[in-house]
Request: fold
Amino acid sequence: MKRKIPAESAVIIGGGTFPRGEFPRYLISSADVVICCDSAVVTYLRHFPDRLPDMVIGDMDSIPAAFLRKYKGPWKRVADQQTNDQTKAFNYLIDNWCGLSRITFIGAVGRRADHTIANLSLLTDYAALLDSSPIIESVSDTEIVFPMLDNGEFSCGQGRGVSIFTPDPTLRIKSSGLQWPTEGVRLDSWWKASLNRACCDIVKLEFSHPAPVLIVLS
Reply:
């Protein structure tokens, strides 16, 4: 059995919009593990030239040949077309590191709407795979997105935008701390619980049953 490496925090860099803000860049610079998805390594090293990623993973079809010849860091080619590069990076992370309390996706959003929707929808799948409860989040300059699978609460600050999305139209959510309560809302369309606002520092959600949910703080 392969021995895993202990780590507290990890960042997976995708090929979306690279952040300019202080907070997402802090998460990158302070992470114990950095994994880049395919050509995202080119952008990452442009912004963080002094730290090689711990792994570059993907099918390597979008990395310039000249860069591959020059790059001396570790990389792993995975040609599997049944998963995207973000999932390949996530699987590699949990196969090789343990004890993680925070997994942050950077560059999961932006540039292409189809990639953004696919990448964010996978966050609930990742949360369901893990026995422990690390923070799983996508962080950009404009929002933080994280999954919930059952009842819970989160601190977001009064006045912050809160949107709730679920693929389960049978789910009912009782909320406190939101300007417009969600109790009684039939979540049969994605927009139904979007564009809400926190009226308290802490928002509490009570699910009618366990279900995949994405929370977007903007």
